[in-house]
Amino acid sequence: MGGASVGVNQSRLDINGSADLDGSLRVILSPGYSPNPSDVFVILTNKPAQMGTFKCLSGIYLLGENKHLNVQYSPAGVALLTVAAPDPDRVPLSIHAEQGGFLVCWPEEFTGWLLQHTLTLSPPDWHPQPLTDTSRLYGPATNAESYYRLSKP
């Protein structure tokens, strides 16, 4: 994304029919581009309506700029609103139920973090969680309780 002109420096997906959002949204800004607070970018339009939300979000935290992109869902589509806000002091960690398992994810822009897991919280015994992706983990459903956290090594 490099500006507000659709088809020139911003992409938009226009759907005629229902849209079922159930995946990831990754925003990539053009080199040197930084949106201004209150800039709005419509990234998806659809008729009759969209359902669901994106589970994993990346590229919406403009780290070091004290602003980020809010994802706004409406029956007519999805937009990104630039807001002035301090950088997060914690990494947003999302956990979602998936068919036959679960998904743990966090924004890709938070680099250098280590996902850890433990089977108990009293006392916790944290271990590094092997990953095949830098910012997400798909796991199978089990009967065992597991707890996850991000840690900065």
Features:
153 residues; single chain; 5-stranded mixed beta sheet; 45% strand; globular; 3-stranded antiparallel beta sheet
Task: Outline the structure in words.
The chain is an all-beta fold and 153 residues long. Helix content is 0%, strand content 45%. It has no helices and 15 strands. The protein has a five-stranded mixed β-sheet, with no helix packed on it. A hairpin with a 2-residue loop joins strand 8 and strand 9.
Number of extended strands = 15
The coarse silhouette is globular
Helix content: under 10%
Strand order of the largest sheet: 1-4-9-8-7
Indicate the proportion of strand residues: over 45%
Give the overall average pLDDT: 88
SSE string, helix = H, strand = E? EEEEEEEEEEEEEEE
Task: Identify low-pLDDT runs.
Answer: none
Distance between the termini: 32 Å
Number of helices: 0
Quaternary structure classification: single chain
Largest sheet: 5 strands, mixed
Structural class category: mainly beta
- Which value, in Å, is the CA radius of gyration? 18 Å
Question: Can I get a quick summary?
Answer:
The chain has 153 residues and is an all-beta fold.
Layout: helices, strands, pairs:
Blueprint: E1 13-16, E2 19-21, E3 24-26, E4 40-47, E5 50-52, E6 56-58, E7 61-62, E8 67-74, E9 77-84, E10 94-98, E11 101-105, E12 114-118, E13 127-128, E14 136-140, E15 147-151
Parallel strand pairs: 1-4, 2-5, 3-6
Antiparallel strand pairs: 4-9, 7-8, 8-9, 10-11, 11-14, 12-13, 12-15
